[in-house]
Amino acid sequence: xxxxxxxxxxxxxxxxxxxxxxxxxxxxxxxxxxxxxxxxxxxxxxxxxxxxxxxxxxxxxxxxxxxxxxxxxxxxxxxxxxxxxxxxxxxxxxxxxxxxxxxxxxxxxxxxxxxxxxxxxxxxxxxxxxxxxxxxxxxxxxxxxxxxxxxxxxxxxxxxxxxxxxxxxxxxxxxxxxxxxxxxxxxxxxxxxxxxxxxxxxxxxxxxxxxxxxxxxxxxxx
Length: 222
Ligand SMILES: C[S@@+](CC[C@H](N)C(=O)[O-])C[C@H]1O[C@@H](n2cnc3c(N)ncnc32)[C@H](O)[C@@H]1O
What we know:
- By secondary structure, the protein is of the alpha/beta class.
- The protein has a single domain, classed as 3-Layer(aba) Sandwich (Rossmann fold).
- It is built from 8 helices and 9 strands.
- Strands 5-4-3-6-7-9-8 form a 7-stranded mixed sheet, sandwiched between helices. A two-stranded antiparallel ribbon has the order 1-2.
- The protein starts with a strand and ends with a strand.
């Protein structure tokens, strides 16, 4: 079976292994292929959004991607970025078997323990279910962010779903305690920028939203 993702007008065929039984067999919820099988248009939309962050950055960057899954991000970004190299790490070994971008390298590993390779220019964090409060409330997540900030990549991308949750009142106290203000769809990117500046010395230079998440591209504050 094949699924076509159309991104920036270009068609990307994704082969779906027969064992996945169209999403009801080996590929279960949470697996990136499930999303491709069930919602190809939403998947393409998210990839178009995320890849748009990298329009205009100089070609030849060395990219390291946490939560690389089945390689949809390098597939969508390659023409936009013309990277020198790209390594993805994902904890699920079945993702590497379905990896879609032959010019990139997929490795199996836990993002919390996998080192960032020397010489990396761009770090991409396509985290599942990341939100700003997770970034300070979950110690493992906070430690990973500190490690990335200390590595000091030239460009740093984080995917975050908080934008889609902040209409729920139970989230407000978490933000109010941290920032002294309630989060809204209008200020979420400002809160994100403030958190990254104050805690990691990175500032949001570009952001976009759609396809179920918000995507932030950051550069180090000089
Ligand atoms: C939002 S998906 C990313 C999809 C990816 N962009 C792709 O092209 O398939 C999140 C991915 O994070 C991976 N993941 C979750 N926890 C992880 C961990 N601790 N270390 C590495 N990968 C992890 C999951 O296996 C899943 O493939």
